[in-house]
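To whoever picks this up:

The parser on our side crashed when reading a file containing two proteins. I've narrowed it down to the boundary between the first structure block and the second sequence. Both blocks are reproduced below exactly, byte for byte. First block:
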Amino acid sequence: MRAIANFLTSLIFAVWLIVIATISIQNIQPVSLKFLTFQSIEFPFGIVLTFSVVAGLLLGGLLPALPSRIQRSQVKKSR
């Protein structure tokens, strides 16, 4: 059962990589990000997309670990 779960995880990750690569190749024009009054330099769309996906994966992997640490520290303080 564990082998199937690992295979499905790898398959989903591989499909995401293929989709990101395909979108990046098809949209090669540079883009500039704007936030309030700030504007970045122009980057190729693929680089912006890749950094966004990596940031999302890292945050998605790290955020579930935070509540368990908070709960553990609260339990230790109450004892």
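<<boundary where parser fails>>
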Amino acid sequence: MQGTVTEALNGRCTVLSELGVTDCAVRGVFRKESLFPKAGDKVEFESDGASNYITAVMPRKNQFVRPAVANVDIMFIVSSVSSPPPNLENIDKMTVICEYSGVTPVIVFTKSDLACAKQYEEIYRGAGYKTLVLSSESEEGIEEIKKLINGKTVVFTGFSGVGKSSLINRICPEAQSEVGSLSEKSSRGKNTTRRATLFKCGSGFVADTPGFSSLDLLMCIDSQKDDIRYLFPEINEREGNCKFTSCLHLPSTKGCDVCAAVENGDIAKSRYENYLKFYKIFNEIKKY
């Protein structure tokens, strides 16, 4: 029988299939092969009459270690436009990880009733990404998110306090995500999500996962420093337009089409600055 792992914990997995929900044990062979099933995995399982066992894990399109989730189609990168304000470096980090992992990023700005999101929309639409703006006071945009989820496995990422868990509850009430109270002292919420769990939502799956907001570039991307340029779509699309074919698009490079695009506003300055930060991270690590 085949199904989808919705939760993996302490050597056992919850699998959703045509039979409904089945509790399965994980055979020792998976531990030996370092292929322990994760939430999102497509698996085969069988019963020996007394217990259910996972017998095979299907090939993964992608996977993450922490949080342990696999086969992600869409990542909703959630940021509030106020209280707290957007952390553009974190948003850009997540889009880079998505590009590398073959995940489609969708940028979601919440709390538009508190501040205008237009300037942030322009940054990410200019980079070629789909953006959505949500208000705490209306359901506008919620139906569009539901349509995007159909037939897909999606995850939500965002710092605590941006309304991520509240958003998941509006889209998928059965998830019953805990909503953390916002700390007035730090203007950041308490991270109340504890482990990766998939919930059925229409014909798709929604994961409320701990840890995505703190993903490390170096843990997620096995890449040479020069390859970072290919993970920024608005930079990558200008590949070949520079005077020198080996151009790394560093500041003041003569004949660099990317630098010119930043100067004339075709590439957002914040995106370019974060490209340089990420380039430096990989440049430093290659020294050791």
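After patching the parser it read the second block fine. The chain is about 25% helix and 25% strand. Residues 223-285 form a domain with the Ribonucleotide Reductase Protein R1; domain 1 fold (CATH 1.10.40.50).
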